[in-house]
Specification:
It is a single chain. The protein is α/β, with parallel strands linked by helices. It is built from seven helices and seven strands. It has one domain (3-221): Vaccinia Virus protein VP39 (Rossmann fold, 3-Layer(aba) Sandwich). Helices cover 35% and strands 22% of the residues. Helix 1 runs parallel beside helix 4 (74-82). It is globular, with a radius of gyration of 17 Å. The structure holds S-adenosylmethionine (SAM). The site of S-adenosylmethionine has 21 residues, from helix 1, helix 2 and strand 2.
Length: 223
């Protein structure tokens, strides 16, 4: 267990920073979910689920299936469980992507929202994701911090944990090395309401460019 990741994101859960993430990421996740064409019986794993808001969105789409949210920060898992008592097809697990506590070939989808760049060993993470995916299952990753959105690199200095910034091309090479097929990527614009002001982007033209460039979405299939 990475003590640094756990301590940092436990702090986000305790001081309320994690409760603000849904407002920042919701519009991207909505776009990604529309592209996923999820079927009602699917079994979905969300890795780096935080307080679980995206897992709850997914759980509503799979009334005959299930969703599991996994996070390395136990306080995130605690908050996620407290907010999800109304769901019968949703569970949350404290654990790390590098050793996913689940059987092989189970999930039809794996989703990572704004978490992949924190993973200490991205190759091992992808090997584990591959292991738990069922044949023809797919992994969907959304990264607002990416080399494709140069302005997003400003966020890196504001974070207290190491971030591994990679381009779509670098991700694609890693996916292929692990055995995934059909790697695809696209940029999703930020469709959330614009902030009145931004400390990170005080220049309105830069803020607009940052929002228009948006987040890198990637997906690939386990054959
Ligand atoms: C920025 S938060 C995003 C949370 C959520 N996806 C959202 O958008 O609100 C990143 C999350 O990834 C989790 N995380 C980081 N490294 C992890 C790892 N190796 N295994 C599992 N979770 C991890 C953190 O604990 C944190 O909750």
């Amino acid at each position: 267990m990475s003590d640094r990741i756990r301590a940092e994101f436990n702090q986000w859960a305790l001081d309320g920073r994690s409760a603000q993430l849904e407002a920042h990421h919701h519009a991207f996740v909505q776009q990604m979910i529309e592209k996923m064409r999820i079927q009602p019986r699917e079994r979905i794993l969300e890795i780096g689920c935080g307080e679980g808001w995206a897992s709850r969105m997914l759980a509503k789409l799979v009334p005959q299936g299930m969703v599991a949210g996994l996070d390395a920060a136990d306080e995130m898992i605690h908050n996620a469980r407290l907010q999800s008592t109304a769901f019968e097809n949703l569970m949350f697990i404290w654990g790390e992507v590098e050793a996913i506590p689940w059987q092989e070939k189970f999930f039809t989808r794996v989703v990572c929202v704004e978490s992949f760049y924190y993973f200490e060993n991205p190759e091992q993470a992808l090997r584990e994701i591959y292991r738990v995916l069922a044949p023809e299952g797919s992994v969907w990753i959304l990264n607002h911090i990416s080399k494709e959105n140069e302005l997003s690199l400003r966020w890196v200095a504001e974070l207290n944990v190491p971030v591994r910034v990679m381009s779509a091309e670098e991700h694609g090479a890693l996916f292929e090395q692990v055995g995934f097929s059909d790697f695809q990527h696209e940029m999703l614009p930020d469709l959330s309401p614009p902030p009145l002001s931004s400390k990170t982007f005080p220049n309105p033209a830069e803020l607009q460019r940052f929002r228009e460039t948006g987040a890198l979405m990637m997906h690939a299939t386990r054959k």
